[in-house]
Amino acid sequence: MADFGFLVHPLGLDDVYKKYSFAKKVSPKLVKSLLRRRPPFVIGEMRGIISETGKSVEGVIVAVPFLPEQFYELEEKKILKKITKAVKVAAEEGAKIVGLGAFTAIPGNGGLDLKGRVSIPVTTGNSYTVAIAMESVLEGLKVMGRNPEESVLAVFGATGSIGRTVSIILSREFKKSILVGRSKETLEDVAKAVRKSGGTEVETTTDLTKIKEADALVAVSSAVEAVIEPEMLKPGAVVCDVARPRDVSASVIKKRNDVLVIDGGVVSVPGNFHSTFEFGLPPGKALACMAETMILTLEGRYEYFTLGKEITPERVEEIQNLALKHGFRIGGFRSFEKELSIAKIEEIKRNAKMALKIS
Questions:
Q1: What pLDDT, in 10s, does the model give residues 96-152?
Q2: Shared domain check, 225 and 298
Q3: Are 253 and 157 within one domain?
Q4: Which site among 103, 165, 213, 251 is 20 to 30 Å from 310 CA-CA?
Q5: What is the pTM of this model?
Q6: What is the extent of the structural domain holding 296?
Q7: In sequence order, which ranges of the chain are alpha helices (DSSP H)?
């Protein structure tokens, strides 16, 4: 029996083909039609999670058969209906709380509309994702030899739940912040909150190319495909890609050996953690959104912990403290699911210095 559940969905057609090889023989349109009709199902388990307090828990992974673009194309009531069924599947496996992974955390006002529909609490995991993203950016700047107080921060997807909170908290550490999003009006609302919390110079823009001014970039949009290309980044920039699907194109690490691109939200889980479902992470590692659900389960906090678009700094601090109590830590630097060695980081630093001298 599982103690908690976690919802996943295919991030692209390649994920579907891994599970159903026959799908390669039919059109993408038919695949999407079949996914729309496929009910949620158990696709894996999470085991070996052992807190430093000695308590252990296990989880069940439930697939929600929708592609990223379907979360936008389909009627929200249909999406919420399938997510509700997925939570029910997890509850039938014994779960007392469920984490909403990737795009399942977006519909229904960031999960708020699931209240009253589901029999057990859900959480988006975004509070701990914020915490780990900020830790990753600051640690990345440190290894690159940069001081946040002398650096420019950009947040792509600043109006989303994670982006907004990252902007509000992390901007305090930087000389200037550039908030990037789709709605100028909503961006201005975030900018007001940033200034109120102690952020100094703040700029808002809908122009993604403005990220070229940034020394540190947190990418956390809800784009359905990669949009950040090699020419958009400043030499020596630290780029923390929290989004899934990724915001950063794979061509960045192929063409730009002078920027540090790190996978956002990767943590080390205490115990002997492993998953029977392939997340592209080595044993012992998990994404922060998953880890939030694990931490709450270890703590016996079966509640709607993080929902909606507003995440308070207090919630972020609370989950950070609980994570430390149970032994969760930042999981080192990884880039496109591969570990970044010290030698590789030093190479990036050297290349960045050369590029900045030339420019």
A1: 999 999 999 999 999 999 999 999 999 999 999 999 999 999 999 999 999 999 999
A2: no
A3: yes
A4: 213
A5: 0.90
A6: 4-126+267-330
A7: 13-19, 28-37, 70-73, 76-92, 107-110, 126-143, 161-170, 184-196, 251-255, 288-299, 313-326, 342-358
